[in-house]
């Protein structure tokens, strides 16, 4: 009869257990391995670009946030499999929510990464301006994020469809019209503006042709994306 495993003793024992947990996650979880490799690439890039201390701190915080979320997701999945080895809808929900935490952390990391590297995407006199966040490009990204959040909230309240498939309103149409609206505020030539809206209409039409959305769902999605983006640019530009 095998003796029960002993609990770790002292700080060193607890530290070894923590390290073993990280190593096990990196060895068995493909996403964890991808996150670690991405962290290495980002850190090497930060040294190459000679980032400031604040920029490096933002990138480091982004890496820590994503790795922490992935470790918690892995731990919860192991506990769920232990408690409910057979399929159960609540077990699936627990895993979906944990995966959602990783998704939110990843999106937040991308936003912080963009802010940390913003001076490489804009002239120095613009990126160092206090109103840099209110430029057309940044407002366009904020508008898209707001549209996606509102689409998810609408689908959650109505109870139909998923963020990427079906339901009221159409997220694809909302995002496409949001981008086309932001293009108008960038003051491009008229052909560019027409092409942007033509592309948005093609995206919306494809959702109907594929049978994913009805015309009313696509129209409401496009209306939501256009109105939200207009408000963001008109109020904060």
Blueprint (SSEs and pairs):
Blueprint: H1 10-28, H2 30-49, H3 53-83, H4 89-116, H5 124-127, H6 136-158, H7 171-185, H8 190-209, H9 215-236
Name its key features.
9 helices, 237 residues, single chain, Helix Hairpins, 2 domains, flat, mainly alpha
Low-confidence stretches: none
| Estimated radius of gyration | 23 Å
Class by alpha and beta content? mainly alpha
Largest sheet: none
Distance between the first and last residues' Cα: 72 Å
**Total discrete domains:** 2
User: Overall mean pLDDT score?
Assistant: 84
Q: Which fold name is given in CATH as the topology of the largest domain?
A: Helix Hairpins
What is the quaternary state of this protein?
single chain
Q: What is the H-and-E element order?
A: HHHHHHHHH
CATH domain class of the largest domain: Mainly Alpha
Which range best describes the helical content: under 10%, 10-25%, 25-40%, 40-55%, 55-70% or over 70%? Answer: over 70%
Q: How many strand segments?
A: 0
CATH architecture of the largest domain: Orthogonal Bundle
Overall outline: flat
């Amino acid at each position: 009869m095998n003796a029960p495993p002993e609990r770790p003793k002292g700080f060193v024992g607890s530290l070894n257990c923590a390290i073993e947990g990280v190593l096990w996650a990196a060895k068995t979880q493909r996403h964890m391995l991808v996150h670690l490799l991405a962290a290495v690439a980002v850190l090497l890039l930060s040294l190459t670009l000679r980032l400031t201390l604040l920029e490096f701190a933002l990138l480091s915080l982004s890496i820590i946030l994503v790795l922490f979320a992935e470790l918690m997701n892995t731990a919860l999945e192991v506990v769920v499999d232990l408690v409910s080895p057979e399929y159960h809808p609540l077990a699936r929900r627990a895993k979906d929510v944990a995966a959602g935490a990783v998704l939110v952390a990843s999106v937040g990391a991308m936003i912080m990464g963009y802010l940390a590297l913003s001076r490489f995407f804009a002239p120095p006199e613009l990126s160092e301006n206090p109103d840099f966040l209110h430029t057309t490009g940044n407002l366009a990204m904020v508008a898209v994020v707001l549209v996606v959040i509102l689409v998810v909230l609408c689908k959650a309240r109505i109870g139909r469809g998923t963020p990427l498939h079906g339901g009221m309103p159409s997220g694809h149409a909302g995002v496409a019209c949001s981008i086309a609206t932001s293009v108008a505020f960038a003051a491009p030539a008229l052909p560019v503006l027409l092409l942007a809206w033509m592309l948005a209409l093609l995206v919306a039409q494809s959702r109907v042709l594929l049978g994913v959305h009805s015309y009313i769902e696509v129209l409401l999605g496009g209306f939501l994306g256009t109105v939200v983006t207009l408000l963001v640019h008109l109020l904060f530009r």
